[in-house]
Amino acid sequence: MEHTPDGTPVGADDPYAVAGVCDHLTDDGRCRFALTRSDDDPAFAAARRADDYACHVGPDGAWRECPHYRSTTAGRECRRCGLAEVRIAHEDARPLVEEHHLSYGVGSSRGEAEGRGAGPHEITVALCRWCHAKVHRSFARIDDDASPDPEAIAERERRRSKERSESAFETAGERFDENE
Question: How far, in Å, CA of 1 to CA of 15, rounded?
Fold first, then answer.
């Protein structure tokens, strides 16, 4: 299993096997990195421009071969147990679902260790904070068939109750006692 720089497991043998499509891939199959950030890698941008900015890997290609591959989560539910995020506006409570990194810098991916690929690549998935802790503190894997932790369900329901109570309609007369 892959590990963080601190030596804790990330929950996957191959981050690319669980990674999504590249964040730079447009709906029409072009490379947004080459279109918008050509100064960052002129040679790469020139090669993509010569091919009408087409992604050289493609939507179902070998992502590890692209030097600018990045797959970051916008997930609102845990990839491992399915717990959905509930955020309360104007509250600074810790999120239920967090971003979990599957790859860390140079030499961390299996492809680089085997001499393949162009990494390092940023690859993240969404995990609830309870699954996140289990993955880093044990041999739990992100692709385990898991149920939400009872504590996680209790916290989610507490937030849902608060959300419902805040969205309930009250007349001004109900909100402001006329005797005050």
Answer: 10
